[in-house]
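Example 3.2
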Amino acid sequence: MEYERVELGEMTAQWRASRPLGDVYFGQMRRHANWETPQCVKDVLGFFESAGFVDWLGRLAGEQLRFLRPVTAYRLERGDRICLHDDMSDPAHAVSVAYNLSRDWVTDDGGGTIFGRVTGITPLPTPIDSPIPLQRWEITDAQRFVPAFNSLLVMRLGEEFAHGVGTVTGNRSRLSLVGIYGRC
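Structure, written as tokens:
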């Protein structure tokens, strides 16, 4: 997998699977030259788009959902983090999933997912090259999730909720596949 560095001010630092220019979320993820993707990886990526998975996810969420865009691979290294955000760049966004791929992750490794109810949003100075305005989010009823290997975290999306990833403090990579599903 080829990754590109994403840094948004002091708020977010991560590696995201790179895709063709202008196609950040919809193009095929780039792979290293001469790399043949194993069939098991193709199967996992296809599973997230399957009608059966989308139907199951909709039953879990209590609403009919549709597949919106291919899952994206993320890698966070020591010091990386993802600021609180709501993923509501499109009002149709309903559910986000994160499939965790790092073995033997423990609380001391940092990088836990944080989810809560939004109580306030403060605009921050935003670098001119930032694709989104930077904001500081405040939440209540925060829940924290350690990214257990081979687990799927399902989060409801809405302007009333925010989620993010705390700073990775361990000396290894936090790997995940993330997808967003929309309302029908």
